[in-house]
From TrEMBL:
PANTHER family: DIVALENT CATION TOLERANCE CUTA-RELATED, FI09726P
Name of protein: Divalent-cation tolerance protein CutA
Highest taxon of source: Bacteria
Gene Ontology biological-process entries: response to metal ion
InterPro entries xrefs: Ion_tolerance_CutA, N-reg_PII-like_a/b, N-reg_PII/ATP_PRibTrfase_C
Name of one Pfam family that matches: CutA1
Family membership: Belongs to the CutA family.
Length: 109
């Protein structure tokens, strides 16, 4: 089964650096990095706002917990907002991401 992870980063460079490391460690198969977004939040009881760069990371569900833990370790925020969930995907996408944990290689027909 496929899984997705959503996480905002402070800037594009940080998202690219962490994404590249997760790719090298075979914890994800892809990271989509978006354009800057405006975030409004409450932190330590105070309202805040700032610009962040959102990212959607694609992985196999078997790697989900490990990928989330690794992002949390590498992320510069004290408490990064990282959410991940298993999801259904096309046969080809599932086969591609299944290779991350030694699943069947190649794209399903």
């Amino acid at each position: 089964m496929t899984a997705l992870i959503y996480c905002p980063f402070p800037d594009r460079e940080t998202a690219e650096r962490i994404g590249a490391q997760l790719l090298d460690e075979q914890l994800i198969g892809c990271i989509n990095i978006g354009g800057p977004i405006r975030s409004l939040f409450v932190w330590d009881g105070e309202k805040g706002e700032g610009e962040e760069v959102p990212a959607l990371l694609k992985t196999d569900a078997a790697k989900l917990r490990q990928a989330i833990d690794r992002i949390e370790h590498l992320h510069p925020y004290d408490t990064p907002a990282i959410v991940g969930w298993p999801c259904e995907a096309s046969a080809g996408t599932s086969a591609w991401l299944g290779q991350l944990h030694g699943g069947k290689s190649g794209v399903a027909s």
